[in-house]
Amino acid sequence: xxxxxxxxxxxxxxxxxxxxxxxxxxxxxxxxxxxxxxxxxxxxxxxxxxxxxxxxxxxxxxxxxxxxxxxxxxxxxxxxxxxxxxxxxxxxxxxxxxxxxxxxxxxxxxxxxxxxxxxxxxxxxxxxxxxxxxxxxxxxxxxxxxxxxxxxxxxxxxxxxxxxxxxxxxxxxxxxxxxxxxxxxxxxxxxxxxxxxxxxxxxxxxxxxxxxxxxxxxxxxxxxxxxxxxxxxxxxxxxxxxxxxxxxxxxxxxxxxxxxxxxxxxxxxxxxxxxxxxxxxxxxxxxxxxxxxxxxxxxxxxxxxxxxxxxxxxxxxxxxxxxxxxxxxxxxxxxxxxxxxxxxxxxxxxxxxxxxxxx
Length: 359
Hints:
The protein has 359 residues and is mostly beta strands.
């Protein structure tokens, strides 16, 4: 795998599938989609070699965050980690699947999609929040332990929004498309110590890479180490610098020992999209029985690509950090460690999962 550590020079804008009109305010989403970073990497190769880049990537992992002070990687926070309601305390609380009936309710009668909803049992008032968790904190969650509060950062500690004026551009030429197409943009600016980290597996069976002489990782590494080491990111094509190395993401976290654990938690590290009736959550998992799903909501994935013959293709997806509780079939032997569920092929990098002890 090729690892990219990416540091923006300026503000960034990452769009979603949510439409807006002239005069509206367009707000950048966070975290950005995997295919946004995949496109930036492919574009740099295309600009040099003019090859067909539509199938040169086998898989991508991220984007995640990198903290330049503690030198740690931060992943999307699991959705079953809550905090005190309205800032009444600064602690964290991990929800559990209820294993009994309570005085106020029977968990089996809740309005989930045919599943039991996880709950927090205690005196505190708790609520969900958006954030990222350090690799050390996530390792504790994976091992069935409770992370420390200082191992989790909220969005407000990672970036700020900056409001600017934009004008409608042609998506291919990036030239002005309409004189009256002004709109406001809420860009995001990463705080000083934060950057992105992203992994790429190239498809070395691809004839286009062979045509460009990029037929192994060392040659890819040499190409990306040439100056200028910059990528164009996001809807406004802002420049970002990068460092590149050969590295495997699977070494950042250790798999848990699931001996005597019939229930596991499956964590989505990237947006999760499914091909079923409603397209928002899976109905079944081979070799497993879904017990519960918890998420901080959904986002609209969007892509506009001539290479893929797609014009503004939009699909609903669960946000990164979504968690599925599943009961393992004793005969199941599928590998869920940094793997992907079956997904819509157009959205490379989605449905990336790892798992943890579930109780």
